[in-house]
Design goal:
Length: 267
């Protein structure tokens, strides 16, 4: 999902705006909606896989059975976990737009004769090395965002917004869906005890950290690999062409911005 989003919205170089906020405000509505939709869909899929694969001891089953009567009743813990990850998707989409994750940095291609033949000149130049070096900062960013949502999530989930409550809406929607497979009690009242036990908060934090880290690493990997110069055996890709100049002109006239920039770097 990150790959599809990045391919559809990539651009080369910095946007001409005074600040990240100006850049954020200048985005077309469709781009904002598309970015948010892909992150929400990614978070929803991740939440369902996480809940499905969780152990019984984590108590994330869609329904739980009441003691003695063994009657099924809806479990609010997976409902809150799903909402928490969707909140995280909205936060990540905002960060994606504000910090302009779609930007691709390209380097000017140098001929092989211009590059030193020593091993030191190639040290840290491989995309995998660059990505590995960024893992600590990406993990720290993921930790911050997961921690922020772990703190704010219960308030957003429970806050009675005018004409709308996230808790009531998500509870009713989940109950309607679960009612197709389980014989639930007729009463649709919300549970008296909210699902904010420290074990639940720890589960949401760890799941959120993993999800944001996947998003951050995916975005970083895309930017690093796509931003690599168009080389083959340390030479421009048009080097072995029978008509290097013709290939260069064809690339400069291409419809894709990235192709024109790559050919311009070779020139």
């Amino acid at each position: 999902m990150i790959f599809i989003l990045r391919v559809s919205q990539l651009h080369v170089g910095l946007r001409t705006s005074l600040s990240g906020w100006d850049t954020f405000k200048s985005f077309p509505k469709f781009q904002v909606v598309q970015t948010t939709a892909w992150y929400l869909l990614s978070a929803l899929l991740f939440s369902q896989v996480y809940i499905w694969s969780a152990s019984k001891s984590s108590d994330l089953g869609r329904v739980k059975y009441m003691p003695k009567t063994e009657r099924p009743t809806l479990n609010e813990k997976p409902v809150y976990l799903t909402c928490y990850l969707l909140f995280l998707g909205i936060l990540q989409a905002g960060s994606h737009l504000y910090f302009d994750y779609d930007k691709i940095d390209t380097e000017v291609t140098k001929d092989k004769s211009q590059v030193s033949s020593t091993q030191d000149s190639h040290q840290g130049k491989y995309p995998s090395d660059v990505l590995y070096s960024r893992i600590p900062s990406l993990a720290f960013t993921s930790l911050q965002r997961a921690l922020i949502l772990t703190t704010l999530g219960p308030f957003v989930y429970s806050f009675p917004f005018p004409l709308f409550s996230v808790r009531s809406f998500s509870w009713g929607l989940t109950r309607m869906w679960a009612g197709l497979f389980y014989k639930l009690p007729k009463s649709g009242a919300l549970p008296a005890i909210r699902p904010f036990h420290w074990t639940v908060l720890w589960t949401t934090f760890s799941a959120g950290f993993m999800l944001v880290l996947i998003w951050e690493v995916g975005n970083a990997a895309f930017s690093i690999y796509v931003g690599q110069p168009p080389l083959k055996n340390d030479r421009p890709i048009t080097y072995e062409s029978r008509d290097p100049n013709g290939s260069l002109l064809t690339g400069l006239q291409g419809k894709k911005v990235q192709t024109r920039v790559s050919q311009g770097n070779q020139a």
